Amino acid sequence: MVDQLAKEAANNKNIGESYTKIPKSAVLFELKEQSVQQWRNEWESPSKAPITKIFFPKIEDSLKMRLNPTPKFTAIVTGHGNIKSYFYKYNLIDNPMFPCKNGDKTVDQVLFDCTLLEQERNKLKVVVTRTEN
After folding, report:
1. DSSP string, 54-105
2. ∠ CA(70), CA(29), CA(54), 5° rounding?
3. What is the DSSP string of 24-47?
4. Pick from 39, 92, 94, 119: CA 20 to 30 A from residue 23's CA?
5. Cα–Cα distances in Å, from 84 out to 75, 80, 89, 91?
6. CA dihedral 42, 46, 47, 52 (to 10 degrees)
7. Do 100 and 90 meet the contact criterion of CB atoms below 8 Å apart?
8. Residue 125, H or E segment
């Protein structure tokens, strides 16, 4: 009976549509795809977010992550905020030097180089390694 009705529907041009709505899931999927494509296009601009791109080079990878974007985290991955090199760039302080005495206080200095932060850096590595596995 199903085959017969399908055949009749296919051959009869006077039968109206039996659906008029698109499923909500299809609309949401399409909107998500469009917004990710727009984000990707803006992200690929060379002048956009150079420091953040170091941490998140691909949009797709960052979408898979479950992060808690605290103010300190945001300051680090954007290079803005309570970082001396940022304040110095806008002439808010006279000296960008970091207490480690081996360079300006930049995001890289805080995360990778400062010997004063070695203990905190090691704790962070343990936590990150544990959550990846």
Report:
1. HH---HHHHHH------HHHHHHHHT-SS-HHHHHHTTSSS--B-TTSSSB-
2. 40
3. HHHHHHHHHHHHHHHHHHHHTSTT
4. 39
5. 11, 9, 8, 10
6. 80
7. no
8. helix 118-132
Residue with tokens 């990707």: 40
Cα R_g (the chain), whole angstroms: 26
Residue 15 amino acid letter? I
CA dist 14 → 9, 10, 11, 17, 22 (Å): 9, 10, 9, 10, 22
- Whole-model pTM: value is 0.44
- pLDDT of residue 27 exceeding 70: yes
> CB atoms < 10 A from the CB of 62, how many?
15
16 DSSP assignment: P
Summarised one tens digit per residue, pLDDT across range 44-57 is 877 777 777 777 77
